[in-house]
Amino acid sequence: MLMSRLGDLRSLMQKHPMIPALRSYQDIDVILNASPRCVFILESSIDSLKDVVDRLRTKGHFVFVHADLVEGLKTDPSGIKFLVRHISPDGIISTHKNVLEIARDLNILTILRIFLLDSQAFKKGKHLAYSMNPDFVEILPGISVISVEEAILKEIPFPLIAGGLIKTKEQVNKILSRGVLAVSTSEKSLWQ
């Protein structure tokens, strides 16, 4: 079942490569009536998260929750089990291997966020990705993808998402032309 959902999500990302990165309730209202796509919930609180996820999923969106940024949720095994079993997102985003391993064990999609700050950070992120085999790797800041050699990006054999500091359609097009599957952004003007 996980492989089927993964295939469906990859097809959806190819059709709609812009991933709205939601940070507020106003953001949710903006995306509710959009055609189904992948959506990231970056900032939330445990008391309202279920309602947000349910509203988005009812409209056909694939919903990923950044577990590290949920106010009131501890990212220990019990916290992640609670998130998966009671909030029911389609997937989890994290920078932490243990969080994503728990999510994977619970049969949920995973996105590992790595930082492309310098060659050492990239090496560490690449090693982490290889050690846990996430469904996707999100590179931050996404704008850095434009200036990195394509050979370096190909060192990560997982579908790539770029996120962070992306403000224009021109930047999005350049990033996507580098073999990146999708771009996440909180810039509402790019969500169409």
UniProtKB/TrEMBL annotation:
InterPro entries in the cross-refs: Aldolase_TIM, GlpP
A Gene Ontology biological process term: regulation of DNA-templated transcription
Top-level taxon: Bacteria
Pfam families per the UniProt record, alphabetical: G3P_antiterm
Protein name: Glycerol-3-phosphate responsive antiterminator
Species of origin: Acetomicrobium hydrogeniformans ATCC BAA-1850
Lineage, broadest ranks: Bacteria, Thermotogati, Synergistota, Synergistia, Synergistales
